[in-house]
Amino acid sequence: MNCWKTINLMKDYGAVRIILTAVCFMILVFISTFLAFELLRPGTSLSDEYVSLFGGLLVVILFVHKVIHVLPIICKKRKIEKKFYILRMRTWKRIPKTTMLISLVSPFLLITPVLFYAALAFPNHAHYFCMISGIHAGYCLPDFLLALKLIKAPKTAFIDQEADGLDILVEK
What we know:
By secondary structure, the chain is of the alpha+beta class. Helix content is about 60%, strand content about 20%. The strands form two sheets. It has a four-stranded antiparallel sheet with strand order 1-6-5-4. Strands 2-3 form a two-stranded antiparallel sheet. Strand 5 (about 160) and strand 6 (about 165-170) form a beta hairpin. Helix 3 runs antiparallel to helix 4 (about 95-120) and helix 4 packs antiparallel against helix 5. It is elongated, with a radius of gyration of 19 Å.
């Protein structure tokens, strides 16, 4: 196996650019989802109760995001544990390109529609669900950037996760 490309988002884009783009993407998604909600349910009065529940739901959504990332990879059973001194760090070895793409995009495609449906189901608290959806979309931005880089890789490529990024491997 040869390394076709190494992807490290911090080196490629920089932390400030990623954060700034993520914040802009959060705002864009919040505005678009809230406008879509207002078009579907005009004149709904919004309630500012349950702010603590909003915070708790946000934490749960970010945890569910991580779990959804891992599910496609676990289905392929490609997990290898490496020990680094006292800490154990899980790394993924030889993940097929399509599995990795599904793993990167699936949290956004699964969680965002659920949040929008929750906004429609609970219209008085729709702004909370739209905010969580926007925050989650910003949290997904690095996944989208990785997916864009992976799309350009050869079809038969494999992905190795390293401590500082991803390696795209191709067979000789």
